[in-house]
Amino acid sequence: MIAIIDYDAGNLKSVEKAFAYLGEEARITRDGDEILSAQRVVLPGVGSFGDAMDKLRQYGLDEVVRDVAARHIPLLGICLGLQLLFASSEESPGVEGLGLCEGRIARIPDAPGLKIPHMGWNSLHYDHPGRLFVGIPEDSYVYFVHSYYLQARDPEIVKASTRYAATIHASIEQDNIFACQFHPEKSGEVGLAILKNFINI
Questions:
Q1: Backbone dihedral region of 11: left (phi > 0), alpha (psi from -120 to 50 degrees) or beta?
Q2: How far apart are CA 58 and CA 193, in angstroms?
Q3: Where are the strands (E) in the chain, listed by range?
Q4: pLDDT tens-digit readout, 100-141
Q5: Catalytic residue at 90?
Q6: Does 180 participate in catalysis according to the annotation?
Q7: pTM for this entry
Q8: Catalytic residue among 90, 173, 183, 189
Q9: Active-site residue among 16, 79, 118, 146?
Q10: Tell me: the pLDDT tens digits for 1-11?
Q11: How many whole angstroms separate alpha carbon 89 and alpha carbon 48?
């Protein structure tokens, strides 16, 4: 079973439907025991860093996510879920994130002709071999919706990046922690292949 963590963030149903399309049982839940007994865990997210952390703490899910990481259960962060894995974000100064990975979440810089939020399809450059991208050609297109982006401290954890006014670290892998700034559940066949690779880890 795949547990999709429910902390009142948007986009949960589309993630659930993508896994169902792949024939996997996925359950939207905020029950800590159910999450910790799952074979895979997904931390999705749409919204602001500060509000999301408030909700995770309100439901006691911040510690559940840390337990998932400590127990080496494969964990996939999506969009805001990627950002929450880090200690802080420029979006919400003073708010403490989960701190499972090292890096900074910064606002995408203004650039001529580019709109923020970044909404649309961008191609992926592979920085290092990543288990989420096995069998998926480099330069494949995936769908992004975000105003803030990751600058990972350790370049070795960055598996894919893209360009949009800056080099955006688009996917990371650190032990059992995987994360995508883009939305695999909204990225067509490429996104489904990424989710299938996560299922097979």
A1: left
A2: 34
A3: 2-5, 26-29, 40-43, 75-78, 103-107, 118-123, 125-126, 141-146, 148-152, 158-163, 167-174, 177-180
A4: 999 999 999 999 989 999 999 999 999 999 999 999 999 999
A5: no
A6: no
A7: 0.97
A8: 183
A9: 79
A10: 999 999 998 77
A11: 10
Q: What is the domain extent for residue 83?
A: 2-90+97-199
CA gap 41, 160 in Å, rounded: 21
Nearest to 69 by CA among 103, 35, 118: 35
pLDDT tens digits, residue range 165-198? Answer: 999 999 999 999 999 999 999 999 999 999 999 9
- How does strand 26-29 pair with strand 158-163? unpaired
Q: Which of 102, 173, 185, 189 is catalytic?
A: 185
Distance, CA of 175 to CA of 159 (rounded, Å): 13
Please report where in the chains the tokens 């986009």 appear, as a residue.
Answer: 11
Total structural domains within the chain: 1
Residue 178: half-sphere exposure toward Cβ, Cα within 13 Å: 23
